Amino acid sequence: MNFAGEVKQAVTPRAALLVLGVLVLQLLFILSYVGALHRPVPTDVPFGVVAPPQASQQLITALDGLPGGPLDPRAVDDAAEARRQIMHREIDGALVVNPSGTTDTVLVASGGGSALSNSLGKITTEVLAQQQRTARVVDVAPASSDDFDGLSSFYLVVGWCVGGYLCASILAISAGSRPANTRRALIRTLVMALYAVLGGIGGALIIGPVLGALPGSFWGLAGLGALVVLATGMITLALQALTGVVGIGLAVLVIVIAGNPSAGGAFPLPMLPDFWRAIGPALPPGAGTWVARSIAYFRGNAVTGPLLVLSAWAVVGTALTLLLSLRHHRTGPAGDTAGTGPGAPGTPGAPPGGAHTL
Predict the structure, then answer these.
(1) For the segment 65-107, what is each residue's pLDDT rounded down to a tens digit?
(2) Which residue did the predictor score with more confidence, 101 or 178?
(3) What's the rounded Cα separation, in Å, for the pair 45 and 48?
(4) Order of strands across the sheet with 103-108?
(5) pTM, 2 dp
(6) CA 100 to CA 15: how far, in whole Å?
(7) How many CB atoms neighbour CB 121 within 10 A?
């Protein structure tokens, strides 16, 4: 057999398409990560201004007109209200003007990401210096000293996401990407749910009591972890039930390539380009990172929306997995009526126990 014939036998058309798909994922990975993170600059950051009425609008106009539009300033009644809005994650910082002196206060929250809080302190300090005033930066939600740059929440959620789609991939690869019937799809779902609970508790145990990297409620983080793992795992199972082994690549596309750089981990959302800022909150890594930081540093505030996002991924993934397995069971693995086509359980030549084992 000549070389061309050897190549044809060694690399089937299906394998060639899968390799091409991997190449596309690789290039998309580079594009997404570098595109999102190569030039982080704050843009339209929600920012409060507490100042006397005669100075408030003038200061807001000055901040709103800064080159590049780093801030989206709005008037806030007083310092207490500014602190409340920061803790409820309605704004990311605030400037509190001292009408009786030349030293003003800049409120930031490094628990939401130190890159952003540092940028806000620098921007406002430069603006005040132009008016012969100085700034005193106060961190109202400081990141733990064991949580460098506020990244622990992000890495925790990434670990949960990786566990979710790897567990789902193993369940599928071990016995066929498409479950043979609804009962077996339900078994996979129950295994995924159990794994999610164990993964959530394990991650919260490591990040809290073992390493002391994050404060906040242990059980709150454990519950979040279970939901993140379940959401990523079930959407991976659904994609595999829909497209076969290609579903693993699609899960990587959604969770890793699109989700991780847009999660606001290394750089909070206001520092990302518009595309990644827009998609981040709708994907599991972004929603999970937001909730983890809220639990750790913001008293559990502002978590309803992200939790609904994660729940939607879990519910949609579960529903699709079960519905697609029902369709697969009715048509059979090769399009025959289930239980009557060649190779069906109980027919000559059928593998013991049917086409799949899980």
Answers:
(1) 999 999 999 999 999 999 999 999 999 999 999 999 999 999 9
(2) 101
(3) 10
(4) 71-75, 45-50, 93-96, 103-108, 134-139
(5) 0.88
(6) 73
(7) 20
How far is the C-alpha of 25 from the C-alpha of 22, rounded, in Å?
5
pLDDT in tens, 97-123: 999 999 999 999 999 999 999 999 999
112-121, 152-161, 182-191: which range is least confident on average?
A: 182-191
The strand pairing partners of 74, in sequence order, are: 48
Task: Answer for the pair 263, 283: CB distance below 8 angstroms, yes or no.
Answer: yes
CA distance 215 to 143: 9
Q: What is the pLDDT of residue 244?
A: 87
In angstroms, the Cα distances linking 255 to 35, 98, 324 are 16, 46, 21
3-state SS, the chain, equals CCHHHHHHHHCCHHHHHHHHHHHHHHHHHHHHHHHHHCCCCCCCEEEEEECCHHHHHHHHHHHHCCCCCCEEEEECCCHHHHHHHHHCCCCCEEEECCCCCCEEEEEECHHHCHHHHHHHHHHHHHHHHHCCCEEEEEECCCCCCCCHHHCHHHHHHHHHHHHHHHHHHHHHHHHCCCCCCHHHHHHHHHHHHHHHHHHHHHHHHHHHHHCCCCCCCHHHHHHHHHHHHHHHHHHHHHHHHHHCCHHHHHHHHHHHHHHCCCCCCCCCHHHCCHHHHHHHHHCHHHHHHHHHHHHHHCCCCCCHHHHHHHHHHHHHHHHHHHHHHHHHHHHCCCCCCCCCCCCCCCCCCCCCCCCCCC
Q: Give the pLDDT score at 178.
A: 62
d(CA 81, CA 122): 23
Check pLDDT > 60 for residue 356: no
- Residue at 268: amino acid letter: P
Per-residue confidence (pLDDT) for residue 191, from 0 to 100: 95
